[in-house]
Amino acid sequence: MNTGLPRFQTIIKGQIMEQFRSEFIKAREIFYEIKHLKLTYEQLYSDAENRQIISEASLEFFRLVHWSFRDSMILQLCKLTDPKEQGRGNNSHLNLTLEYLLKSDVVEKSNKYQEIRDLYENGITHLRKPLKEFRHKLGAHADYPTMMSSSIVDPVEGEIFALFDAVEEFFILMNSSIFGCSSLKSSSSSNSYRKGASDLLKILKNNESKHI
Fold first, then answer.
1. In terms of Cα–Cα distance, which of 156, 67, 90 is closest to 59?
2. Whole-prediction pTM value?
3. Mean pLDDT of 136-141
4. Of 9, 136, 138, 156, which is most buried by a Cβ count within 10 Å?
């Protein structure tokens, strides 16, 4: 009895899964960077007391920091949710994005991952539209009609966080349903980012109190 073919198929399937795992991890690293940005952003700007501290320390400096954090989150979220492939012919190229993961053999050839597909098709593609428009018109390009218009597209915080939450859910679902992991944890602790922002706020607050 020839058992060579089934064993060969098992080896190929294992190789495909390992390749997919490495791609998933690389894409997830991009998400972790966005998460770290969001954690620090929230600690600096989502608390009224903290906003008061930084405004008294240097309003203009932290206005620029706020702008940079927001733009970085938008650009990174758009990058992660871009199409799998862009361009045509010799100018076409692959992107390591959520769509790339979704259209991989591991996911696309199975009927077990409909929840992930639904989240992407009904949630993420819709939520990215205002961020994508900003990225194309202002974030990455100085689109002339937009720049000269009085109604410049500018995503609000809620739109940015809504897409972030959907992308996080995408990674959690994929992590649990494909790899059997119930949690989505970074190799680097998010506490270090929280602590960094917290330490800065303490220094600023102490300096302010010394001048009272």
1. 67
2. 0.84
3. 89
4. 138
